[in-house]
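Reviewers of the previous submission asked for a worked example of the structure-prediction workflow described in the proposal, so we include one complete record here. The input consisted solely of the amino acid sequence. No template or homolog information was supplied to the procedure at any stage.
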Amino acid sequence: MEETLRMYFELKQQQKELEQALDELREEIVAKCGQRESGEVLAGGYHAKIVHQERREYDDARLYESLPEAGVWRLVSKADSAKIASMVKLSIISEEALKGTYTSKRIQSLQVKKI
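From that input alone, the workflow returned the following structure tokens.
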């Protein structure tokens, strides 16, 4: 058991170091991509680009008030963007009813591919 615990501890340490190194590299790549109008960089056999996404962050109280019936709240129970999007697709909730229940947040995602 001591060997298992030692190995687990060492791997967790390596994981922390790798995550820190990845964060530093990501910041450098995002800075380089951000300097270009296209938001893309080609270097050697690699292609990096910044992709922007819109994410909704729902206000539970406002969302609850906008739902057509209390039974629908049980399907959601907490503002879960994926569940809400599915309910909109299934026409359980209308996009119109959701107006004012969320704020949009722009997220930056980095994609690096080997070409």
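Strands lie at 40-43, 46-58, 102-114. We consider this example representative of the routine output the project will generate in years two and three.
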